Amino acid sequence: xxxxxxxxxxxxxxxxxxxxxxxxxxxxxxxxxxxxxxxxxxxxxxxxxxxxxxxxxxxxxxxxxxxxxxxxxxxxxxxxxxxxxxxxxxxxxxxxxxxxxxxxxxxxxxxxxxxxxxxxxxxxxxxxxxxxxxxxxxxxxxxxxxxxxxxxxxxxxxxxxxxxxxxxxxxxxxxxxxxxxxxxxxxxxxxxxxxxxxxxxxxxxxxxxxxxxxxxxxxxxxxxxxxxxxxxxxxxxxxxxxxxxxxxxxxxxxxxxxxxxxxxxxxxxxxxxxxxxxxxxxxxxxxxxxxxxxxxxxxxxxxxxxxxxxxxxxxxxxxxxxxxxxxxxxxxxxxxxxxxxxxx
Length: 344
Prior knowledge:
11 helices, 69% helix, 0% strand
């Protein structure tokens, strides 16, 4: 079987996968309309597991930011030193800027030989995210006493968590794309640097690594930072009720009863959480500002992610939603690149 035949087989498989996802979106929206017509809510009335009050402060937020930026900078400069140990510092700056998501575009005068390939760019991002996970989680546990239960990561009822995440993704993805289409009709599109490189140097290895990074690593890192750490802290910050700064005991594994909720409040939704979701979404969209006007649609998607997190108490659910959305977007790009390559 030739390489062209393999590409055609991949394109055909992607087409079937897209058809299945589209049918899933239609089924999810029909289910949602039926529930609304019957007066039922879409999110669960009670969290799968109640989120404990965040006991960390601004120092932990600063630590997370430094870990994220530091992992990208160290990986970028380290690779630059290995790639061109005798090169100028300017080339190292170029590599570091490529490795860090949201970094400004590199100077066009950089020598072509020093430019990263799409595979190198995605690989550096992948390594930086892995470094954040390997180093960041133990440091958070050691310095801030922040563990998986504090963030909403637990194994109880994991099929239900995944189910909520998939349903949320099937509902949110078409709405997000509709907003993106409106935004692109108003503003000029600024393509992501990696996307432009993939258009010129598309390979199966790039496609596979891009899928792994966008579907698994990016949701793990970004949802831990934005929903698990930042949104939880902002919820406590905006909460008018008194709270303790000590780590709480492990919460029960079973969903709480409605009678245990604060009178007049929606079970699973804390006072101040709505404002925390909005502020987190603004920062989440701003991090993707180099892909304008994508932040407009990503802000709405982030509102869905933040609301789902508050209502379910599950960080896994929002990771699944984020991963399915990213996977759909990446598969769409890969299908377009494959079709373009076959025509060429």
